[in-house]
């Protein structure tokens, strides 16, 4: 049964003005209206609103949310799984901050000693660590650029590209039992970084994005399964090696 804007606002606990704003910016525009011009929200609209509010709860700006959910490759199931992971991490951080507050209260009462490091445990002043992952999956024009780059190649060129990728994976698999910080590991992972940024696949990875991509290799079981075909534990090794590479090459 379709719902009017006031009914949706009451159901969700938001304001009519907020829903009107979402409509105005093209973030959530109900397809149905009454003869009198009132917006009617379908179950599909409500599901999309839930998705939007999950992103908002995790501090994504509205512009970025619109970009993500408007992508033709957006996958609701994947997004929900990402939300869950992000919320679990957020809960862990909040629990840590509560512990820091409790210890600080005891410290101000003179009941315990507290190191300077302990005073700041739980704070996270970095940018949203999952925004890059969301952008890699659904944002910007990454997918379309990659498709365009591949479509512009002949079949022989595509085959050669695949063979080059496989060769790099095999080289990485051969050193996966060494330390990710070893010279061999870093030389091998640099080949992967250079390949991704060669322009052959229509995308450029910053060091931050490169590290985020490595984390995705472990977080997304599909990546893990494909990569580990070249050697058990390769995805985990690549994640660690990519993180070391990004850190070592930061200016």
UniProtKB/TrEMBL annotation:
This is DNA-binding transcriptional MerR regulator. PANTHER family: HTH-TYPE TRANSCRIPTIONAL ACTIVATOR MTA (PTHR30204:SF90), REDOX-CYCLING DRUG-SENSING TRANSCRIPTIONAL ACTIVATOR SOXR (PTHR30204). InterPro entries: DNA-bd_dom_put_sf, MerR-type_HTH_dom, MerR_fam, TipA-like_antibiotic-bd, TipAS_dom. Pfam families: MerR_1 (PF13411), TipAS (PF07739). The keyword DNA-binding applies. GO terms for molecular function: DNA binding. The keyword Transcription applies. Keywords: Activator, DNA-binding, Transcription, Transcription regulation. Residues 2-71 form the HTH merR-type domain. It comes from the Bacteria. It comes from Caldalkalibacillus horti.
């Amino acid at each position: 049964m379709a719902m009017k804007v006031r009914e949706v606002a009451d159901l969700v606990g938001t304001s009519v003005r907020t829903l009107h704003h979402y409509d105005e910016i093209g973030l959530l525009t109900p397809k149905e209206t009454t003869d009198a011009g009132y917006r009617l929200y379908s179950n599909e609209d409500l599901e999309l609103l839930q998705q939007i509010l999950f992103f908002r709860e995790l501090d994504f700006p509205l512009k970025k949310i619109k970009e993500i959910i408007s992508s033709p490759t957006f996958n609701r199931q994947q997004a929900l799984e990402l939300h869950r992971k992000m919320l679990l991490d957020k809960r862990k951080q909040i629990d840590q901050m509560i512990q820091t507050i409790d210890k600080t209260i005891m410290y101000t009462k003179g009941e315990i000693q507290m190191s300077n490091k302990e005073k700041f445990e739980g704070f996270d002043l970095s940018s949203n660590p999952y925004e890059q992952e969301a952008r890699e999956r659904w944002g910007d024009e990454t997918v379309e650029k990659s498709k365009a780059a591949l479509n512009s190649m002949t079949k022989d060129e595509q085959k050669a590209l695949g063979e080059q990728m496989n060769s790099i994976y095999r080289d990485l698999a051969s050193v996966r039992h060494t330390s990710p910080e070893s010279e061999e590991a870093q030389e091998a992972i640099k080949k992967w970084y250079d390949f991704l940024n060669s322009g052959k696949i229509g995308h450029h990875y910053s060091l931050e994005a490169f590290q985020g991509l490595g984390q995705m290799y472990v977080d997304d079981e599909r990546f893990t399964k494909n990569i580990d075909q070249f050697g058990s534990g390769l995805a985990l090794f690549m994640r660690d090696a990519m993180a070391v590479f990004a850190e070592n090459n930061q200016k």
